[in-house]
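Escalation from tier 1.

The customer reports that the assembly of two entities below gives different structure tokens on two consecutive runs. Tier 1 could not reproduce it. I'm attaching the input and our single run for tier 2 to review.
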Amino acid sequence: MLVKMKKIITLLVAIVTLTGTYAQKYVTKNGYIGFYSHTPVEDIKADNNQVAGVLDISTGDLVFQVLIKSFKFEKALMEEHFNENYLESDKFPRSTFTGKITNIASVDFSKPGSYDANVEGDLTIHGVTKKITAKGTLEVTSGSINANSKFTIAPEDYNIKIPNVVRNNIAKTLEVTVNMKYPLAEGK
Amino acid sequence: MKRLSTVVAFLLISGTIFAQNDLLDLLNEETQPEIEFANATFKSTRIMNGHSIERMPSGQLDFRISHRFGRINSGAYEFFGLDQANIRLGLEYGILDWLMAGIGRGTYEKTIDGFLKFTVLRQSSGARSMPVSVSVLSSAAINSLKWADPDRTNYFSSRLSYVHQVLIAPKIISSISLPLSPSFVHRNLVATELDPNDLWSLGAGGRVKITKRVSFNAEYYYLFNPKTYMGQQVLNPLSVGFDIETGGHVFQLIFTNSIAMIEKGFISETTGSWGKGDIHFGFNISRVFSFKK
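Tier 1 run:
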């Protein structure tokens, strides 16, 4: 009886430990999101290397969160206008995305390689939440999972008003680039 | 045995609950609160005549053209002051993110001025809370008028004056900033024995945003030991006006009882009276060029 019980305990402990260490959620705090606006008048580019994100590879759930004030521009004046006039970062300090990789089942995380990913979810910018879909890639390497995507958004959709004076300086749609590198060591 | 399986079952279940936790919560746990700095406490480096806590960030050059016209009460013959113009041209550059330097040349006493402005504290919330932004301004001005009496022994140092200010400003809410500026003016040489060489004052004011691109600004300096300037009673300078931002430019429209556009002049040598209509209309234009790659 005692021997049997010991075996059971060992087995159960092993199960618990395994489920505990088998990482499914990967976290990064220094992902990249940038956007680019091209018009004949001027090009505007902003980078943010402090994007926090979690990817759950068992469900495909995906969230990002970014502080608006940590977008860096080439011109200080652009950065000020971005925060003060357009994104109103005092009122809406963060932007978030919560969504899903819908085809997560087709990704084999045990095999290094590049996999196509379809993403859909809710993007909140400037206090306005919109459903978006985007295509991207998941790159599985021995040390990390890299999630990359490029998509476009229109400032108007997020209630960001651009006055006529600068209408020609800011594109109607902005190209958004996302590069998230989830180190495998940071799994939860 | 039963107890053991309960514990194990509990552990397994709690693992599942953890998995179902909102990922956003996990993210919030993982990320440290960041320091959020208040930005754009003022639209420009000047409130009206006087400096604000703002400085040019590194690699940014501010070209400033400022005008003050004559007194409005000078009447239609003088086109309400617009026939006379005082100008100051300035080039002001951000050397580091906390240090800027500027030079300028003004009509008023044909003055060449230079200043250094340091950011000492930045208002922030989040991981570090700081209720105000503080900058320090040190400026010097050279009066380049011909000597009033060329026959006596004149020293170059007599042309110099210095102003030091501690600029303090909280951005209370996103649309309201309230600056306070204790100031000290020293003039090496003054015109008469009645004029003080050293003058202490306290600047106060406010900025209220009316729209995203237009704000109403006011600025007042209280003089602790006002005396005379060239035999006339020195009055406290009061300026009111608007900041209008148009993309690359900031226009400041000003009504003030001072004609000078540098600290030494408007703090210690203002003789116009608002009550009598000795008001000067004027404007500052600020155009910023970026030299940062």
